[in-house]
Amino acid sequence: MGRVHNFCAGPAALPEVVLARARDELLDWQGQGASVMEVSHRSPAFEAVASSAEASLRRLLGITDDYAVLFQQGGASQQFAAVPLNLATDGDAADYLVTGQWSKKALAEGARFVEANLVADGQDDNYMSIPETECWSVKGGQYFHYCPNETIGGLEFGHVPEPDAPLVADMSSTLLSRPIDVSRFGVIYAGAQKNIGPAGLALVIVRRELLGRARDACPAMLNWEKAAANGSMYNTPPTFAIYLAGLVFEWLEALGGLSAMAAINQRKASRLYDLLDASAFYHNPVARSARSLMNVPFTLADSGLDATFLQEAESAGLMNLKGHRSVGGMRASIYNAVPEGAVEALCQFMDQFERRYG
Known about the structure:
By secondary structure, the protein is of the alpha/beta class. Helices cover 34% and strands 16% of the residues. It is built from 9 helices and 14 strands. Strands 2-10-9-8-5-3-4 form a 7-stranded mixed β-sheet. The protein has a 3-stranded antiparallel β-sheet with strand order 11-12-14, covered by helices on one side. A two-stranded parallel ribbon has the order 1-13. α4 (101-110) links the parallel β3 and β4 (115-121).
């Protein structure tokens, strides 16, 4: 079978050129006579890989020396606990804005370690829109946490909150999809399995002045200050994931950087949303002002056709379109590595499916 069009929300598609290079280097990486997975993380060769990956990421996002860049294990969900353990002590408060399942999980984990204030909860609207800022209840605290893009519901912020406390953002589904102003954030973290690399790796970008605040009970493996002091090598890091992430960063730079990637992503999203908006057969439930550039959920007018849609889509090489179990329907995740041709193939299939069954 040839390569399929992969719309999985995560682990997501990786750039084909990156996979091809990793394949070619797998048995003999840089003349080492071994794969990158088999060399010491303390070797000069791998230390160069990690340094190069960090430098590339800094160029892509314009990250200054005021921030530490950490390659952490455990994915973004582990950072749900790391955030309060590093930024607050027992009895401290923090604000949490809930706009979907991932920020809801972050709140539940954070509440185990801080007095977690619920700023607003979009549950009454089934997380289909961003709660109006006039309705937010910001009490202040050690940090303000939110998720700019909710993967499951396809909900995305069109603005960056401006709290008085350090802003913490779970950017798992949106980091590297477009330029951002890192200086507006105290902490940015992201699971790798969307736009960065393999699952299991998490990026943490933290303002250096926030390091050193971890409580005494913070486990060493979750302590950002220790990670920064040890170059993300307090223990053996996920070397293959860092290597692949570095290749993805190189691919993005060769493409023209995040401005070029943003233009491609906007074309992909517009093509798909335009089809949905012009159809009475398909429907996107998210408020137009809060539609995600990365995750596009949609339903069919007749849910009885869902299984047929998915079966025929897979036969056409369009994979992983089933919506999350908590919301149903369909979802096309169109991350960086999903080419425009894949979105065009999806739209053509959807048009044909509507003609047959609509």
